[in-house]
Amino acid sequence: MLNCRQVTRLVSQSLEVRLPWRQRLVVRIHLCYCVWCRRYSRQIRFLRRAGRHALAADLEAPPEVALPPEVKARLRERLREALKEPPPPR
To answer: In the chain, where are the structural domains located?
Structure first.
């Protein structure tokens, strides 16, 4: 059996690549009985979805904290790199 540190590493890794079926099975079994790893798994998936949503939403900041367009473009590019997604077509 895997310990919590190994499982959390695999949960994070599974967001990037598909794990072999044996590892997926061991992670699922561990998540069935470990509330802390289950919480970590939910939180990391939530953060990933929130990051994607923020990237796609193109939310405008209030005028008092508005960023220059160049800074916004750099932030979007870094988020895309972090999520390893190709930029959307324009």
So the answer is: 4-83
